[in-house]
Amino acid sequence: MILALDIGGTAVKLGLLDREGTICRKASADVAFDGYRTPIFTTVVAAARRFLEESGVSPEGIAVSATGQVETEHGIIIGSNGKILNYEGTRL
After folding, report:
1. Is 6 in contact with 12 (CB distance < 8 Å)?
2. How do beta strands 61-66 and 2-7 pair?
3. Where are the domains of the chain?
4. Average pLDDT, the chain
């Protein structure tokens, strides 16, 4: 199974996909619940751990899509229009 994460400005969407790309399970979590005082990535990691524990799965890999500009060599968020607190500088 592959863990897929789609990190957006208001929610993270999580999915478990098989090798053929079929979505076997999905969920979402609010990342702006406290006005971004909790860094988005902290919320994403907690949601992913909870999702995997509930699923009883150890993924073979992880696929990530993230809002904003990502410096791909180091996996760092470098832009978000300044609208998301505690996000720029996040290392994926």
Report:
1. yes
2. parallel
3. 2-67
4. 93
Architecture of the domain spanning 2-67? 2-Layer Sandwich (3.30)
What is the rounded CA–CA span in Å between residue 26 and residue 39?
A: 22
pLDDT in tens, 51-80: 999 999 999 999 999 888 999 899 899 988
Q: Is 24 left (phi over 0), alpha (psi -120 to 50) or beta?
A: alpha
CA 22, CA 60: separation in Å to the nearest integer? 15
pLDDT of 25 reads 97
**Helix, strand, coil % over all residues of the chain, rounded to 5:** 15, 40, 45
d(CA 39, CA 3): 21
User: What is the H or E stretch that residue 42 is in?
Assistant: helix 40-55
